[in-house]
Amino acid sequence: VQDWVSSAAPPDADFSARYQATDSFAPPPTPLATLVYDATRMAILATANGTTRTSVAHALDQIDYAGINGEVRFAAHTWADAPEIRYHLDNGEVVALAANATQ
């Protein structure tokens, strides 16, 4: 299995505990869960003052969100200064190898 790079932060112990407490059958969270969590929080913030396409787009342009994955802000419709974290699959476990890994 090859390594891969993602902007998703590995879940910390607090996030993992809260995530698994939501359901007795919830598996341990993966880095994707942290991205979904931050994206959901940002969507809630972006729709606070309206739900039209224009109002949400404007709100997302203005948000500087400090989340599990670090500072999230958008520039030119993309995540500005997104972190790059290298991951590897080791015996079925997702392992973070290095932050800001470009290769």
Summarize the structure.
With about 100 residues, the chain is an alpha+beta fold. It has helices at about 15-20, 30-45, 55-60; strands at about 5, 65, 70, 75, 80, 85-90, 95-100.
Comma- or semicolon-separated keywords:
7 strands; 34% helix; 103 residues; alpha+beta
Task: Report the β-strand fraction as a percent range.
Answer: 25-35%
The percentage helix is: 25-40%
- Shape designation: globular
Low-confidence stretches: none
Order of H and E elements = EHHHEEEEEE
Major beta sheet summary: 3 strands, antiparallel
By oligomeric state, this entry counts as single chain
Number of helix segments?
Answer: 3
Strand order of the largest sheet: 1-6-7
Radius of gyration: 15 Å
Number of strands: 7
Structural class: alpha+beta
Integer average pLDDT: 89
Per-chain topology:
Elements: E1 4-6, H1 13-21, H2 31-46, H3 53-62, E2 65-67, E3 70-72, E4 74-75, E5 78-79, E6 85-90, E7 93-99
Antiparallel strand pairs: 1-6, 2-3, 4-5, 6-7
Structure characterization notes:
The longest helix is centred in the middle third of the chain and has 16 residues. The chain has a domain of 70 residues. It is 34% helix and 25% strand. α2 crosses α3. It has 103 residues and is of the alpha+beta class. It has three helices and seven strands. It is globular, with a radius of gyration of 15 Å. The strands form three sheets. Strands 1-6-7 form a three-stranded antiparallel beta sheet, with no helix packed on it. A two-stranded antiparallel sheet has the order 2-3. The chain has a two-stranded antiparallel sheet with strand order 4-5.
